[in-house]
Request: fold
Amino acid sequence: MKVIDPSVPRRRYWSDDVGGREVCPRCGHALINEQQTYMMVVRQGGETVPFIVGARAGYFCTECPTVVLDRPGFEEYARTGIKNNRPAEFTIFGLLDLAAIPPERRSQPIGAEGNPIPLVKFLPDDGQPKAGVAGGKPSAGKRKGRGKKRK
Ligand SMILES: [Zn+2]
Reply:
């Protein structure tokens, strides 16, 4: 039984922006690591390839809707999702709530007609916590959010 409910929209942070994946950057609670399914989009040479990945690279807060994504972990998944195995720019849209798929549809491909992708998008970035919380350093103009450019 999983602890984390993927149907809850969360704020997401990157491990290297918040100084690790041990504690929640918002409330300081310990994070737990659990396998979940993510919707990922990899861009490479003008090509955009969406794919769904079951990954154990997310660290979840059980006290507030926050997930810290392990950047090296997801980079690894992004690499395997593209043809020639080179690093690529990628975005993670959110988690998939697989339990939302009706039982009679579970044998069908996700995203097929009549079987929409049960994407639970991340909450928009509200600028919290302020830069410097994790490392104790004042912001030097470095904004978190590398690799999360949206179209
Ligand atoms: Zn928290």
About this structure: The CA atoms of residues 91 and 150 lie 8 Å apart.
